[in-house]
Amino acid sequence: MVNSRMDDAMAYGVAVGLPDMERSLLLALDNRPGTLLDVAVRVRKFPEDVEAPIQDLVSRNLARVNTLAGSSLFQLTSLGQQVAGVVRLPDFQRAQRGEESAAVTMSVTPRGAAGLAAPAAAAAPPPLDPLRQQYELLMQLADLAKQQGDLALATQRYEEALGILQQLSAAAGAD
Predict the structure, then answer these.
(1) Buried residues in 38-48 as b, exposed as e (16+ CB within 10 A)
(2) 11-81: CATH, from 3.20.20.70, 3.30.200.100, 1.10.10.10, 3.90.1150.10
């Protein structure tokens, strides 16, 4: 159970750190291996637009390349399948849309009457979410402990991160 929770927290952390294109590629490859052209068509992009992001997935061990008869066939690794499962979750998608709308809100400067700028308090970006920061810090500490071979400490940090993640999910569900 602890290992499963650690894997879930790690997969969520990886999913959060991926650019949108790489998330789309993960979903395009989920249960369907394909050539570079196949994958590009699935995400409605040109092959040259997906070549670098798909190589990033390979370097992150989320996808692998099998060469068959001179053609490269891309498919997800088990970690890639876990991360794709997280990306597919409605809670994850809602959280990502919430971040995008917050970024759009921050980029638009409110205007007052007669074209005057609104008060500084209204134009200031919202403070960073301390729970989100705590989650990301715990994930980094867990990854560091794992790299150093201290699996007990890594497990502890992943479990703490999972608790924070559950709090974030509950807060997002309440909104």
Answers:
(1) ebbebbebeee
(2) 1.10.10.10
